[in-house]
Amino acid sequence: MANPKSFDETEVLGTALGVFLRKGYSRTSIADIKKASRLSAGSLYFAFESKQDLFLRVVAFYIRYVVVARIERYIHDQGFFDGVRSYFESTFKNKEYGRCGCLLTITSAEPHLDDVVVRQVKNGFQIIEQEFRRIVQLAQENGEISRKRDPNLIAQHLFTSYQGLLVLVRFGKSDRYLKTVTDAALAYLR
């Protein structure tokens, strides 16, 4: 009979997320997660079959509770332009994970990823772009953006601007510089 888990899986996923953000997928080991979570390797392997399994679950957690939740919090609550500005600026003002950038962006830049991880990252990128498309369409329905503009192109613009911003955040560009990048991304939409 298997032992029941004696830890909060959500807490472990959040802790593992922080480690993957700082070190990247390839450079993170189960020993790193063990140390950060203060769990034994046996407990981790009981709950997660492998580092890859843990990472895939961390990515799913990240998409749901960080990416989509932040889009909801910033964009739906503030209107389109103010919300997008707040969302973009939160990438360099958010203190929860420091200035690590985005798990998906960081991972996508790593060499020699296995196909399962690549698929999970691509899926995450698709979800982000779909969320942008959804909020653009809502903004068009509310009259904040012209209905003549292609929501797919606007979503692609937001997605690529956001990804570029995340890379710049990770590599230490100043808040002033990042604010200018955000302003430029929004100016295209007016």
Protein described:
With 190 residues, this protein is an all-alpha fold. The chain is built from nine helices and no strands. Helix 1 crosses helix 4, helix 4 packs parallel to helix 7 and helix 7 packs across helix 8. The protein is elongated and about 55 Å long.
Keywords:
190 residues, mainly alpha, 73% helix, 0% strand
Helix/strand class? mainly alpha
Radius of gyration: 18 Å
> How far is the first residue's CA from the last residue's CA?
61 Å
Count of separate DSSP helical elements: 9
| Tertiary shape | elongated
Listing every helix as H and every strand as E from the N terminus to the C terminus, the arrangement reads HHHHHHHHH
| Residues in β-strands, percent | under 5%
Helical residues, percent: over 70%
Average pLDDT level: 88
Outline the low-pLDDT stretches.
Answer: none
SSE diagram, text form:
Layout: H1 9-23, H2 30-37, H3 41-47, H4 51-78, H5 80-93, H6 103-108, H7 115-141, H8 151-170, H9 175-187
Helix pairs in contact: 1-2, 1-4, 4-5, 4-7, 5-9, 7-8, 8-9
Quick summary of this structure?
This protein is 73% helix and 0% strand. It has helices at 9-23, 30-37, 41-47, 51-78, 80-93, 103-108, 115-141, 151-170, 175-187.
